[in-house]
Amino acid sequence: MGLLAWLRFPEAPAIDDLDDAAVVKLHSGIIRRKPFLRRLYVDFYRTIEQWLPQGCTKRVVELGSGGGFIKEVIPKIITSDVVPVAELDMCFSALEMPFGDASVDAFCMMDVLHHLPDVRRFLAEADRCLRPGGRIVMIEPANTAWGRFVYQKFHHEAFDPTGPWDLQPGGPLSTANGAIPWIVFVRDRQELARALPHLRLVHLRPHTPVRYLLSGGLSMRQLAPNFSYAVIKRIEGLLRPLYGCLGMFYTIVLEREEHGPATEEA
To answer: Is residue 103 in some structural domain?
Structure first.
């Protein structure tokens, strides 16, 4: 048995079709059985929470909720996915959302943008739905030297910084380009500003160089003991000046300009 085969989480071989709704339940079980990974999810959810707009009391929507548990951190959030999952609040495509104009305070997403087949269409739809001052808060793969190396060498998803914004037709999870967040918000930032002038990029920061790797993610065995999480997190904090080279994830925040359309009552 090769090293990579041994490192694969026991449930991972059971995933034959990444786009099957049953995979969501499998992922949910993996997250809950890996304490290190679960703590990382909690930290990511708290990062999302801290970037929500102040006074967002009407409607906050998570897109691509999958097997996550964001309601444990942000109880009033509306969970959703493009595949039907009984535990989630709604099922719809992020390219055509069932919300009125200016009726949403914030959209949250974690590792979702780089799976969307038409990013322009999603951003235009989110722009329509957001109230003035509303935000899109996302955590996505980072195109740093370390992140690019890991994603291109050891991850099953494509990671092509030379690619376009859009993806070839395919399934919601099996089709992806992990470099799309960098493409849209760094490489083509001026194009984004021209296409969607109401959406302002207010924050983009790389972070988390090693915790996800040590957690094993959703397909590999956990590589660090549970008790080491806090220590490793502090070590990562010491590496903050090097996040531009070492970060594996971005936190990205877009805000709808206040001079948008009048807010609709939900």
So the answer is: yes
* Residue 29, CA distances (Å) to 93, 246, 261 in order: 24, 29, 42
Is-contact 210 238, C-beta < 8 A?
A: no
User: H-type helices in 188-242, by residue range?
Assistant: 189-195, 211-215, 229-238
State yes or no: pLDDT of 122 exceeds 70. Answer: yes
Looking at residue 74, which CATH number applies to its domain?
A: 3.40.50.150
Burial category of 226 from C-beta neighbours within 10 Å (exposed 0-12, middle 13-18, buried 19 and up): exposed
Give the chain's count of helices (H) and strands (E).
10, 7
DSSP string, 13-80: GG-S-TTSTHHHHHHHHHHHH-HHHHHHHHHHHHHHHHTSPTT--S-EEEES-TT--GGGTSTTPEEE
Tens digits of per-residue pLDDT, 35-65?
Answer: 999 999 999 999 999 999 987 667 999 999 9
Q: Which residue has the higher pLDDT, 169 or 241?
A: 241
Beta-bridge partner residues of 212: none
Predicted TM-score of the model (pTM): 0.90
Number of domains in the chain: 1
Give per-residue pLDDT as tens, 123-153: 999 999 999 999 999 999 999 999 999 999 9
